[in-house]
Amino acid sequence: MIIREVDLFKGIASHIIDEIAQLAVEEVYPKGTVIFKRADFADSLYILEEGRVDLLIYGIKRFSFPLQHRGYVFGWSALVEPNRYTATAECIDECKVIKLDGTRLMHVFEKHPSEGLTIMKRLTGIVGMRLDKVYKQLTSK
Description:
Layout: H1 14-23, E1 25-29, E2 34-36, E3 44-50, E4 53-58, E5 62-67, E6 73-74, E7 88-91, E8 95-101, H2 102-111, H3 113-139
Antiparallel strand pairs: 1-8, 2-7, 3-6, 3-8, 4-5, 4-7
């Protein structure tokens, strides 16, 4: 399963990956589908399996952050309070994703705190990298 390939979960013990995989639901969305909107209640973390998803932020400027590689994680707000999505996720193509229930995933992390902390640290790295790209785009001419 793709979960084993995702950077977020690499090196995590197999029995914990198996617990996470039990939460996984594969979903397919047609091109143009909005998976979630900014400010919606964030209940799920997603892993891109096939296709392309555009993360969109609207404000003074419109920011687009396309996800096009297998294993990209999005919807991280499902794991962070106040559990509201910070962007809108729209399918550029037909997309196949793995959907993980955020509450149930956090229960796995609580059950295995050392591994949960490792995963959350990796997640903050992903968020930081994306914020850096947003800041660069917003400050460019």
